[in-house]
Batch of 3 targets.
Target 1
Amino acid sequence: MLADSFSLDAATRHRLRLLFLATALLAASVITGWLRPDQPGIRGALALAGALIVAIPIVSGLVTAIRSTGFAATQFYMDQYVVLALAACLATEKYLTGGIVAIVLVFGQILEERTTVGVEMALAKLRQLSKIRARRKKEGELEEVEAAELIIGDEILIRPGESIPADAKVLSGSALIDQSRITGESVPVEVGPGSEIFAGTANLNGAIEARVTGAGGETVMGRVQSIIEEAKHSEAPIISLAEDYARYYTPLILLIAASVFFFTQDIERSIAVLVVSIPCAFVLASPSAMVSAIAAGSRMGLLIKSVRHLESARMIDTVVFDKTGTLTQGKLELEDTLVHSDEFDAVAVLRIAAAIEGNSNHPVARAISNAVPAEDRPPVGDFTEHSGLGLEGLVDGHRVRIGRPSFLEKSGITLGIVPADFVRHSLVLLAINDRHVATFCLADSIRPEARETLSRLRSLGITDFIMLTGDRAEVAQHISAHTGIDRFQANCLPEDKLIYIRKLRAEGRRVMVVGDGLNDAPALAEGDLGVAMGALGNDVTIHTSDVALMSNDLRRLPDLLLLSAKTVGIINQNLLCGFAFIIIAITMSTLGWINPIAAAFFHEFSAFFVIFNSARLLRFDGMEIQTESGFEPHELESPAVPA
């Protein structure tokens, strides 16, 4: 796969053929000069032919780059100086010098393109994942087809060790699925009937049958690939700033080259000034770092929509969190069981409750039924579901009712508790034979990495954390105490969150909003940086946020800020070094210490320095930088909070 990313396209092969032909003509010119020194015309004609041939890809690239935007437009700022230097050589009949300089520069450009492969490698891997074969069931038979041929509704078989060819829903079987290619998380996910699986992930151990729900560009993998492509061609403010200064740079260099010729009467010095002034290092400083950072982010499950979001992340000073699904797991769990009768113990009431709740798909019912294996539940008869209230049925010959406190009260059952005393929990009450015998306290657990995430963010200098939730104040207070968030706003509607964030920004805060991307979409859009949690398989989340976390790991938030800070730091290094290279090289050229050919090699050295410096971002690993900064990860308990 890596070899594929380095394979040459048709345009590159064409340029190489022209370079080899030009090199052969220039070599023939040199040999002719040795063998036939009395025939300068032939030597000059061969050198001129070689120079003109090598000029073809330069001029065509310049014309193409004029119409380009983003990263591709940087070629224009470099090629114009090559054309100027080549024109000066041709005008002064220094064909051999012009040809050699052009060959060095064009060959250097090809090598630069081959080494600037951060995003291209990421995209190549994504494309490779989409070029897999699938086993499709058709009329009871299995046929092997390309993944691109699958359509929604097709039934497919995925065997152990195979890649998932399309987004699908599992019909039968169970397996462990490795989603690290998308989310960056190494822990496999267990799937079974009803579970969603995604294209490009890997089936580790079990055979499963599934029905296709998305294929081609409509899969999660397809959308991620499209967004990374768009991000690669987007433009950050720091790149625009460099382009603004570039318009003054060209006239300045032409003035310097003309002044050098005026005072020295040495055209080679002027040509050398033009060659070393090619702002390759300066122009590549920002784009090369940005595309490498986007590639590093995608590897970690950070889907960055535009490079401007990557640049602005380092400026964040305030983080606003949603509660459910962000700071909490967004999934109800049974926290406590209270028994109000001497006839039953906690195990018995839970067994009865799980039996009747197992007949419902409601999230509250699943939280209780999951606490008891299906084989340990007694059978249920005469089952009735009272929508929005509770369930009723016969278990072991007993009339059982389970649901909200209001459901039991409407049934004429006296409650053994005062519901108002349980402000932190969602309550499910169990009545057997018209007697309230048990109360189940349900809660949503805090994400285990929440406190660690806030500690890491504080180590980066962020101290203002705010939680906005539509839940009760008691719930918000409980979460704040366990996560270390000092400020919270409870009972918030979506429009209340929007108003609050606008107020923060009006105060001059740089706000990052973290939510689930659905009900928090207005707030995500209003913040300076909107980060959506758990975007895997969620089309709305991917398209409404500035940055999407493909996993649910909050620790990717400080990784995002670290990546932003390191990227801007490397850009500043590139700009400083590029500027220093140009100043030193112009001085040396003016003094006649280097000729045009040496200037071409000097220029390529500066360009490769910038590219390889930016390529360091490809090795970015948030946990590695975390350790270097002295912050050590630690295990935290996951306290439960009310639903």
Target 2
Amino acid sequence: MKIKLLSLILMLPMLAFNQVKLSTNFKVTSSKPFQVVDAAIKEYVSVGNGKSISVKTDGEKVIIQLFNSTAMKEEGRKEYVDFPKYNKAQKLLKLNDKLFYISEAFNKKERTFSVYSREIDITTGTFKPIQKLFTTSREVVAIRKKIMRGTLFNMEQVPKFDVIASFDKSKVLIQYRNEPKEKSDAKNFDEIGFYVFNNTMTKIWGKEVKMPHTEKDMDNLAYTINKDGNVFMLSFLNSDKSFEFISISDKDGLKTKVLPVKKGLSFDKFDLRETPQGTILAAGYYSNGVEAKVDWTGTMSFTRNVNGIYIFEMDAEGALKKDTDYPFSIDLIKKYLSERSKDKAEKREADGKAGINDLTLRKFVLNPDGSIIIVGEVFYVKSELWFTSKELVAHFGDVVVTKIDPSGKHLWSEKMPKNQACLFQNASDYSSLGISYIQGKSSHYILFIDNRKNANLMLDQPAEPHKGGFGGYLTAYQVDDANGKVAKHSILDLTDINGVKAYQFDTDRIFEVQDKSFLLEVYIKDKLDMMIKMDLVK
């Protein structure tokens, strides 16, 4: 009896710890389970009036589901098997009140790709007839962006065909890269395809354009399109470490202009956007260089010490209108660091080199009023001890959100603690980590899976690590758009969502169905899915 009583006393702290108090600010509702759709690619979009459409692609078989979040039930499901052979989804594209499914198919005999568009009737959740947009002149390869990650130079892959809409959603660019004719980067001149359409996916113009520099000398960083149907590129010239602005149009062809912007900085990636005034904005994180470190095992790793944000603006002719450097404050940099790391940051700040290690650009939003939101997440891969063996481990760390007003004034930057990790090659765990960013009318939401130990974590403390594949709590940081004030919410426990356990979770399956109302589809076993609605009620 005494032994049992002692065991109970010892367990009390653990029981108290396990009873995490969920946020009362969110109301969580579950739908009735419905039959799962097994598909490699699943995309979700809100179509208004509390309804959403999901499109799930399994090769030549594509399934559309219509879901009503008010009634919390699936209202329709339609399966299509009339797509071309080797069909691959590229993007679910919403253009104001129209929705298009963009896909590509490979012709093995001709060694070419064809790109297709198929409109979806958003009231019935059904496909309209398929439309062939164009066929490439030869084989196409994925756009490659070289990004340093930990001990590796990983090649980040994006879809073979990049689909970009103009600011006003009146024009669409489909861009791709032909397979190089020369194996040597020093000899090869990339040929890139640019096809432009209006908002009914009717072709305006299209051509394949030879780049003005060799692949070795030219890194293509970002693309965009304006409301007039003109295409713009930002490239980096390795020979003289300068940025080049490239415009491509049906009438004038290709024009280049070297930009007189700041040199001597290192950039991870850039994004391009057309502003409401018709100028072109480029934004990216910068650092003073790449640093090498050696751990206790003798393994060398590399890290980018990100110092701030760099934004520059051009007119349609490539004339630089302004460029602005937004360095991170030392207070932001030191948030959630150990005392030792804080001291190091202070010393580096004296030399102008303090920064946030491995911060990666995740989202660049240009609002209708001209204000800017930039979302970044710490991400790196390194070789380290994982349980009992040495493995490549992917780390997803703290999140930084910045707002800049229409005049270019920095309004606020906030850093939020997060600590996630999984084996680099484990696809299911990898897709469950990272963040889902949702922009509401008055707040920004960063949603992610967190360790239960962090449920009651204060916002001035570093986060305990969460390992992918080990349950966790769906957590939201709510950031006030006006002042950057952060509130934290533990929304639900993946192992007990209204009495049901979720066996699969993917950040890409979280989406906003209306302001302050989010949907999440989860797999609950026995070939069943369930939709979860999360309403911010206070």
Target 3
Amino acid sequence: MKNPFENRKYLIGGLLILISILYVIKLLHLQIIDKSYRLSANNNVLTFVPQFPARGLIYDRNGELIVYNEAAYDLMVIPSQLEDFDTLELCNSLNIDISYLEQKLKEARNYSRYIPSSVVNQISSVNYARLQEKLYKFPGFYVQPRTLRKYSKDIAAHILGYVGEVNKKTISEDSYYKLGDYIGINGIEKSYEKLLRGEKGVNIYLVDVYHRRKGPYQNGRFDTMAVAGSDLTTCFDSDLQEYGEMLMNNKIGSIVAIEPSSGEVLSLVSSPSYKPSLLVGRQRSINYPKLIQDTLKPLFNRALMASYPPGSTFKTINGLIGLQEGVLFPWTSYSCNLGYYSGGVHVSCHAHDSPLQLIGAVKNSCNAYFCNTYRSILDDPKFNDIHDSFENWRKHLISFGLGQKLGLDLTNELAGFIPKAAYFDRIYGEKGWSSLTVISLSIGQGELGLTPLQMANMTSVIANRGYYISPHIIKEPQPAGLERHYADIDSAYYSTIIEGMDQAVNGMPGTGSTARIARIDSIRLCGKTGTAQNPHGKDHSLFIAFAPKDDPKIAISVIVENGGFGATYAAPIASLMIEKYLKGKVKRKWIENYILEANLIDEKQD
């Protein structure tokens, strides 16, 4: 008779074999395949010390070194290794308060007794040399090398930006950064952070249970070298930038200069500014709050973020649109009786010859002429109504790069403002407004708001007779996405407007030229003044220009807040900048001294 338990024997044996196989597979997985336990074990005997790369250098367009690195040091502490030490001596060596040291040590203990924490960041080479002689007296402390930014010229703060410690948000978004790392905060330092920062290396050390180093792991076989950041060559001319900042001293406003043929930004001045060295190292924590609280807003980049009515500089664009739309011709003539009068509306104008044709109207900056021109654009019978003609006018402006971000390779660029027809519908109703309602737009006033960068770029379009290259601040490596953008104005129409700008500067005395103060004997400069109404005080002084006339090398916009007429301050500043760039030096010292001695900030405060 067959044993009824015989089948159970095989079943139990099979289960035991299966369980044994599963255990073997699990052991193989834990010991050979799964690295987590090995890593966990290693972490108890190894410490990984980052090696920070040298940040990339920054040069100007002529190869002059502008930003470089200087050795600095972070004082680190491992709380478990601390022994009694002279706290007063350590604090005196570092110029810190005892209360500050005690607070940092408390934070370090709370974080971890065995993992290093930072006590004092960015110690200068001078202070480090003094500390190094005494470091043996302070067990548990050691120094980690870093670098600080240094400047050959204390200029271009809004272009260069600055470097600071990463915040928790950045750490959570990018695994490259760890607590205590540094990152570009704004300007070039931020826009080109990934190129400038390089790649961190690491040294691996054996440590005991108290996290004391016992030597390199496997003689440094698995250490990696830090890779230095890439160097950058900028488009700006440091001599021109320095000169522009000097001219704008004691004034509020901006200068933007562009090379029309390439879109390279030659100078970008925002005033008041600050010295970039103020935001380097440990003094940044002292100086930054002061700059934030300064009522003149030196951290505010007016060249990219401020929005101004372009004033009479905008007449050049309305003239071009009128020519393109066929409602204006070079010989079109309008009279001016100290202004424009229609339907109870009066736009005043200064005394000048009348009537004028288009070149003379640009030369004399006649308000009445461009009021008539603008109404002929909006009241053109080929359009169904004011909405269609207004949007067509606005489309032309957009093609000049106005009312939109130009894509400059710096942070914080704003778009300015060009109203849509719907904007006026909301205010007046769909049938409640006409060309006369928005007549202030004819002379660059009203709701228009352009940034200084946009005005310089607009000037580049005129200089190029119809196109602009995307403005950019870095020359090498060349930024991606640089394109030639065409304004939708036929190139044949620019010559008339340019001739008017030429005559505004170079016309004979007594003929109504509004910008003769900008004239340079050896350079054919073309320009247009502007006076932007300011509801909060004295009018702003504006000027756009390019030179030379037939082979433009520089296009520029200058805005001096509360400077009055365009010819008072903006025009001479632009003229001096152009002479400096094209000639290398300025001969007209009387104009230079007049600008340097002007103090509009004190006048405003008085």
